[in-house]
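Example record

Each entry pairs one chain with its bound ligand, adenosine-5'-triphosphate.
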Amino acid sequence: MSSTTVLTQVNTREVLRWLGGHLAPYRWQVAGAIVALFLASGAWLALGQGVKYAIDNGFIGDHPQVLNQAALAVLIICIIASLATYCRFYLMTWLGERISADIRMQLYQHLLHLSPSFFSKIRTGEVISRFTSDTAILQTVVGMSLSMALRSLVTFIGALILMGATSPLLTLCVLLAVPVVLIPIRVLAPKVRRYARLSQDKIADLGAHIDQSLHEIATVQAFNAQTSEARQFDNRVDEAFGVARWRIHYRSLLIGLIMVLSLSAILLIAWVGARQVFAGDISAGELSAFLFYAILAGGSVATISEVIGEVQRGVGASERLLELLASPVDIVDGTTTLPHLPSAPAIHIKQLQFAYPDSPALFNNFSLTIDAGEKVALVGASGAGKTTLFQLLLRFYDVNEGDITLGGYSIKQLKLHDLRNQIAMVSQESVVFATTVMENIRYGREDASDEDVVAAAKNAFADEFIEALEDGYHTQLGERGVRLSGGQRQRIAIARAILADRPVLLLDEATSALDARSEKMVQQALSSLMRGRTTIVIAHRLATVQHADRIIVLDQGKITAQGKHVQLMKSDTLYREYAELQLLS
Ligand SMILES: Nc1ncnc2c1ncn2[C@@H]1O[C@H](COP(=O)(O)OP(=O)(O)OP(=O)(O)O)[C@@H](O)[C@H]1O
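Structure tokens for the complex follow.
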């Protein structure tokens, strides 16, 4: 699915309001930058008056001391202009860095609250690209391009006013030329922006491709798919380059057209001006000052035309960022605070109706009660809906109809944080982060002491292998725990859940077979974890179903049988088949 169909579209006005909102807290820096901007532009403009004075009174008037005074004035003006430029440049770059840092923080916060269903519809590489390259563009645009555009705009307006004061007739010529110069901006700037945005989308495609193939590098290499991956990647790179070429084409055209138009206008004005000097209507100093301003104004227009493409690129990048920020948090937080549950709660699923978006109903009028402290094993064929029940309990998706209660509280009313604080989940693929063993286990409870972590690891029968690692608990585990065996990863995940010490346990047993010793260790770790908790296990192990208080057989979203292992082996054909084929022991 294309990511743009998942995201809310935004318009330019929203983008500007959003950027304005981000600049608002830094109004002093913005004000400082604007003052510096006016000061620097004012100083450069004053230089023109110095030129006129020097020519009319110094050279032509033949007064060397006037020339000295003029040179001193010019030096002072240059120093003021340089200092002001330093301040403007510093403040604008600071603002660029600051607001892109703020946007990154805001975006990350937002992403962390979007439900897994959102991420199932958008590619991670796409999100990462928006996160890194779009914020970097914004940083450059606010810090550099916008600063240059503003400076040029102020200089242009100032130059125009001073030109008017020097020679109204020549200024009229300039004013007639301005709309001609603006035509290419109006026509070409939207094209630059469209291709800039498209270009970013294509770069994001590349990011998504790299993310996927490197993430699954073992599969890529095992299937000798390097060549085809590289070919697909080359095609995408070519597409990105193709779009970038259009963007560059329109940008270059814009710059070139503006340059030729503004230089022709200056030439025309110089010609009219020279004739006026011959006729004695204006002095040579006035014409020099006028031309100085005209060149300043022309230079400003040229700068604006160069950076306008960049600014358009910034608007495109902002649009892409804002789209991510505008994606609504689809799981609405409840309002009820859950008091600390003294013991394992009962779970009631009442007349549940649920379908994944754009999919047929999976659960229809499904009801299930799990008593406080009960250990229930879910078994059933692939696609029966076992994992979906976990997702619903954690409110990654909301039920369409019916209700789920935890300790008597409807989970929809509970604050999400409080609900999830009651539940520890151990997923089928044990999640291990690229940090130390200690921090991996501590993920279960942020404020746990080192001693608590070690105690949890001991209860999970993980302490022995952890101590044998090169740096014990401080050993860095590779990305996704590649440096550990499957059984070791499982025990780390179990230790994390033990440390979290939550009254409800959702356990998705790993299907992969472990050797007898690892299996025994993991089984012992699980028994230690389940003690005193309401537990639902998606069971793939014989030991688990044998020790469960109740086994629920699920088939296509329905309970087809329930009871103890021995009982079901006698009475239920589906279960017997499942047990014989699937339960690993
Ligand atoms: N995000 C999703 N969007 C749409 N349909 C989904 C989604 N996740 C699962 N399904 C569908 O819902 C049904 C139940 O899936 P579920 O993962 O709950 O089954 P399961 O019993 O846990 O299977 P397994 O044992 O293979 O993990 C399947 O038909 C699956 O295709």
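The radius of gyration is 35 Å.
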